[in-house]
Amino acid sequence: MPSAPVAVVTGGSSGIGLAVTDALIGHGWRVVSLSRTRGPQQATVTWVPCDLADLGSLEHGMDHVAGLADGGVDAVVHCAGLLRTAYLGSLDRRHGATMWAVHVRAAEVLVDRLGERLHDGGRVVLVGSRTMSGVAGKSQYAATKAALAALARAWAAELAPRAITVNVVAPGPTRTAMLDDPVRAGTPPVVPPLGRLVEPSEVAALVLFLLEDTGAMITGQTLVVCGGASLG
To answer: How far apart are CA 42 and CA 135, in angstroms?
Structure first.
């Protein structure tokens, strides 16, 4: 029997990353998860402890992943993220640097280190945000998420000869613990026109669509799932 496909997922212990991990496991994938804390799927996920905001920790974690992925990788999904909000006049440089490290630098290290281990026909998905188009009070966060679209298009062009696709999935307001974080009290979520928040499982379903045969001809794109929030 053919071996199960292998996906490396960041932030797989909670929120969208957890939903993506659950979806992959449910469809027969093996998952290697990089996160600060262990997720609930202890028996079915290979957990690599890693703080993506810390370059040393990230590099150490990637050394571990490289050993685990000696036979190659079929997909890389970068879900890890955090949100800090502030308006002009109150921007915190440390918050901006941390978001850049987790969203952008971690993506660079992850795909750079695993690019050669990706099987031909493999997949890369970066989780962005509808906010990447620019939203008041979220300039630093939006800038880091917008950078992912540029990375995805550049990498898609580089990896196209190997039939490896690279895309961004950009959710709107999603029902995760991030929405309840006190640090975003100044910019509360707005319920989308369709009348409710996006579910993490709905974002995971789109990611899975891109990872499987259904997504073979989609690359260099940003796909938004936002319940109509981008209509305004």
So the answer is: 37
